[in-house]
Every structure is written in C-alpha cells, then in structure tokens.
UniProtKB/TrEMBL annotation:
This is Cupin domain-containing protein. SUPFAM superfamilies: RmlC-like cupins. It comes from Lysinibacillus zambalensis. Residues 172-206 are annotated as: Disordered. InterPro entries: Cupin_1, RmlC-like_jellyroll, RmlC_Cupin_sf. Residues 21-158 form the Cupin type-1 domain. Residues 185-194 have a biased composition (Basic and acidic residues). Gene3D superfamilies: Jelly Rolls. It comes from the Bacteria.
Amino acid sequence: MSSNIEYTSPSTQFTSDVNDNTLFKRDDRNFINILGVEQLNTLENISLLDIFLSKNKMIEPHYHQNAAELVYCISGAAIVSIFNPFTKEIKNYPIEPGQVANVPQGWWHYEIATENDTHLLAIFDAPTPDVILGSDILKFTPSNVMAHAYCLDETQWKKTIAPVVPSTYIGPPKDCNRVKSTAENQKDQKEQKDPHHKHKNKYMPLNPYPPYRYPNMNPYMNPYGSNPYGSYY
C-alpha cells in the first residue's frame, strides 16, 4: 500500500473532533460539520459531512464533482432526492435510522428532513468533498446568458432570482416571506378542517407538489417555479 503520509512526523494527526469544524450554520438546529484532509491529515480517500436538520429544512440542490456520496441516517428521517442523468428522472428515497442512500459522483441531488432532530452522515470517497451549489449556479450565471439560452425575459429572470443567497446550503432562508400559492392555501384550509390528517403518512406531509407524491417530477429543476416548502417556515 503506497501513501504520501509521513506517519513518523510529529504533526501527523490520528484523531479529530468533528464538532469543532463547522462548514455552515443556519441556527442551532440546522448546521453542517465537516471532516476532511484539512482537518485530519492522515485521511486519504475519505471525508464526511455531519448534518443536522429540523423538519422541512433541506440541503439545497447540488452536486459533488469529485466524489460519490453515501448518506446514512443516524436519527430522525429524511428523503434523499437524486436526478438520474441517464433516465432523466428524479427518484426520492426515504431513509430512517440505519438506512442509506447512495449518490453517484456528479449527480444532482438534495435532502429534506421529514422529522425534527434529523441527523445525517454523508460519507465521500475523496479527501475533501468539493461541491457546486444550486444557489451559486443561479446567482453567478450571467442573467443575459440564462435569458438567451432559455428564451427568458432577462428583467423577469433577475427579479425572480434576486432573493437567492449564494451558498445557501440549508434552505429555506430565515427571512423567507414568499407568498403562498393557491394550492398551499387550500392545503392549510384542509389541515384546519382535519388537523390529524397530516400524521397519516409521515412521508407525505400535505404537500400538493413533488417530491412526495410524484417521484419522477422535481420542482427544483425549474428554478423559477414555486417552492413547495414555503408553508413550513
């Protein structure tokens, strides 16, 4: 076995505290810790993200250009949604403690917590998990390019993506005040009439949009479509 690690060096590290290495923090219940070769210099082809989410918070759509990702559920529950570039389908995989979902290298995906106190461990086959975030793609792609490529009104496109914050990581934003759609208002009215209905299927909170009911459709593939999670902020 070959390695470039100098195991006799005084600076060689064999242990680390992941709690001390925060990659992103939205609040005390929603944050991501990281462990890679920069935090533990004896790591080679492995790294991880320690992810904590409250219900309906999500890791924004993204992909890892240098690594596959194995998502392991420690506590709570989540749905891992993956875009298969070969079948052109979004597939949604509910996971509970002890269950995993595997995301091949470079595949577009996102995770949403379906319970409070959800704890996920994302394991990568690379020393540092590089990432390209959907928020960065939306924010930094020139508006004239998007307008030309997809025959859009450039002014309308700029207005639509104005609230997007680069490197969102965990959404939705704290200050989100999106106006509810007609379907969401109807859903709220239904919950008020039948407050116990929302507990009948924990993988289908009363949400008229994918990914819960139509596993091969994905609202996030349309960046200017409505966000189905606004009613839970």
